[in-house]
Specification:
There is one protein chain. The protein is α/β, with parallel strands linked by helices. The chain has 8 helices and 9 strands. The chain has a single domain (8-50, 95-236), classed as Alpha-Beta Barrel (TIM Barrel), CATH 3.20.20. 32% of the residues lie in helices and 17% in strands. A 9-stranded mixed sheet has the order 1-9-8-7-6-5-4-2-3. Bound molecules: SN-glycerol-3-phosphate and magnesium ion (MG). The site of magnesium ion has 3 residues, from strand 2.
Length: 247
């Protein structure tokens, strides 16, 4: 594929400069001129898609237990910024709807990682894909979001719910049967932990017509090497070191 998306993608929104997966993080990416962000989405107990990485409370929001056991009305009360810095204490866990609204208004492209609470893979893929497709049908601007996931059932559900939205398979290392896996999902790209990439694998994937995104690359020299190999996009925490025009 000819990669139609930004080449530098802000990991979890604001990378190291703001609390992950918050509107403040997206604002930070926007302020620095970044044109693409990656963020994670899962469902609350009552099925609201929210921007969250861990499926458990405790690290980025106070409390204990599973996000999948908490209704959104309770989750929205929790401080999602103080863990990072006291000045972000007003941040809350955003909904997918809030993220779409803000990022489209800012002209920022999205890689939406479907990150289901364990056991809720298909429901999460279905809900996220429908929400994005519905929003995009009336309010979308620019290239539509790319949905990605480590969860094959989540991607299958997204494919059924919104076949027109592009999908990418997330992996740690490149599996031997990558072609069959990508073909089965009709996925446009493979998103790979950069340590497991090689010039040879990048060349093979791209020769087969697939995009390649490398995560999470925080060293500019490594980013340069990956891009020289033909990697299409770099997902990074270091928005301060990898400027939008780095690639
Ligand atoms: O989508 C790339 C990257 O975000 C995957 O890892 O754990 O940061 O969601 P993680
Ligand atoms: Mg992610």
């Amino acid at each position: 594929m000819a990669w139609p998306y930004p080449r530098i993608i802000a990991h979890r929104g604001g990378g190291v400069l703001a609390p992950e997966n918050t509107l403040a993080g997206f604002a930070t990416a926007s302020r620095l001129g970044h044109g693409g962000v990656e963020f994670d989405v899962m469902l609350t107990q009552d099925g609201v898609p929210v921007i969250m990485h861990d499926d458990r409370l405790g690290r980025t929001v106070p409390g204990r237990g599973s996000i999948g056991a908490m209704p959104y009305a309770r989750l929205r009360e929790l401080d999602a910024g103080s863990w990072f810095d006291a000045r972000f204490a007003a941040e809350r866990v955003p909904t997918l709807a809030q993220a779409l609204e803000m990022l489209v208004a800012a002209g920022i492209w999205m890689n939406i990682e479907i990150k289901p609470v364990p056991g809720h893979d298909a429901a999460t893929g279905d809900t996220v894909a429908r929400a994005v497709a519905d929003f995009w049908a009336t309010r979308g601007a620019g290239p539509a979001p790319l949905l990605s996931s480590f969860s094959v059932p989540a991607l299958q559900a997204a494919q059924r719910a919104a076949p027109g939205l592009a999908r990418a398979l997330l992996v740690e290392s490149v599996p031997a049967d990558w072609r069959a896996r990508l073909d089965a999902l009709q996925a446009v790209a493979l998103h790979v932990q950069h340590r497991y990439l090689s010039a040879y694998l990048v060349e093979r994937l791209r020769a087969d017509g697939h995009g390649v995104m490398a995560y999470t690359v925080n060293d500019p020299d490594r980013a340069r090497q990956l891009l020289a190999w033909g990697v299409d996009a770099i997902c990074t925490d270091r928005l301060d070191l990898l400027a939008p025009d780095f690639a």
